[in-house]
Amino acid sequence: MVLKYQHPFAQIDLADGWGSMAGGRTQPHRGLDYQPGAGATIPAVAVGVVSANRWNAALGNVLVIAHPDGMYSGYSHLATASPHQVGAAIVRGEPVGVVGNTGSASSGAHLHLTITFTADGTWNNADIGVTTDPYRFINARLNGDDPVQPFKESDMPKIISVPGGTIALVSETFGTMYTSTSGVQGSSIAANTKAYGQVAGLTEDQVKTLVAEANARGQRIADLVAAAR
Questions:
Q1: Phi, psi at residue 7, to the nearest 5°?
Q2: What does DSSP say about strands 198-200 and 158-161: parallel, antiparallel, or unpaired?
Q3: Homologous superfamily of 14-139 in CATH?
Q4: What's the pTM value of the predicted model, to 2 decimals?
Q5: What are the M23ase beta-sheet core domain coordinates in residue numbering (predicted)?
């Protein structure tokens, strides 16, 4: 499955795109600029989970979203810090911040969007090799698929029952599948539906996707905590 992406805005500055040296740059432009005007609400380019919400001297207020396909999108120069905390599940198109002009690298209100292979979400050690062209990357995935919508924190944890006996316990950062509700673990989990809440009607493949996404979120958070020590 190819993950579905969208451009956050239609107003793209292609004259100063990814890799550009325009404007007297001393290093290639690592992202793509969108200019919808100050105060415009920024939508997430794809489903994912917030992996960073921080201040950067050059980029100002920055939000980074980790996506299920292993990529990261970075939203820079936000007018104010994004309201989303690290670990929050985000759906494609969900507001993640407001266009601003923060950081020393900004000379006017715009969104600087980066798509990276690394968790930094912007760049590491001034290495352009960790970024990819957002314009080409997103255009190649406009017709992709959204995964099963991730549960919000308020919906977690949930028990998911699947036709045929499979049962799963999925939380915000952890997921486990059991092959049969007749098993000891399955029965004990199923007995706690009031504590956990319950979801039914999903296919086994959809449940596997949710379990994988939950575990990926948990691992990313654990990695962030470890790196901060």
A1: -70, 140
A2: parallel
A3: Glucose Permease (Domain IIA) (2.70.70.10)
A4: 0.67
A5: 28-116
In sequence order, what are the residues at sequence separation of 6 or more whose Cβ sits closer than 8 angstroms to the Cβ of residue 96? 42, 43, 44, 63, 65, 75, 82, 84, 90
Residue among 27, 123, 112 nearest 75 (CA): 112
Question: Can you point out the beta strands (E) in the chain?
Answer: 32-34, 41-43, 48-56, 60-66, 72-78, 89-90, 95-98, 111-116, 131-132, 158-161, 167-170, 175-178, 198-200
Integer Cα distance of 70 and 50 in angstroms: 13
Residue tagged 């049962």 (tokens): 167
What tokens appear for 75 in the block?
């939203």
Q: Which residue has the tokens 């979203």?
A: 65
Which residues contact residue 91 at a Cβ distance below 8 angstroms, ignoring those fewer than 6 apart?
Answer: 44, 47, 146, 149, 150
Task: Please state, in angstroms and rounded to a whole number, the distance separating the CA atoms of residues 215 and 124.
Answer: 25
* Cα(157)–Cα(195) distance, integer angstroms: 9
- Written as six digits, the tokens of 195 are 């504590």
Instruction: Report domain extents, the chain.
Output: 14-139, 153-228
- Exposure string of 140-156, with b = 16+ CB inside 10 Å and e = fewer, is ebeebebbeebbeeeeb
Print pLDDT tens along the chain (229 aa). Answer: 688 999 999 999 988 888 888 878 878 888 999 999 999 999 999 988 888 899 999 999 999 998 888 889 999 999 999 999 887 888 899 999 999 999 998 989 999 999 998 888 887 656 667 899 999 999 999 999 887 655 454 455 677 777 766 777 777 677 777 766 554 455 556 665 655 667 777 777 777 777 887 778 777 776 766 665 5
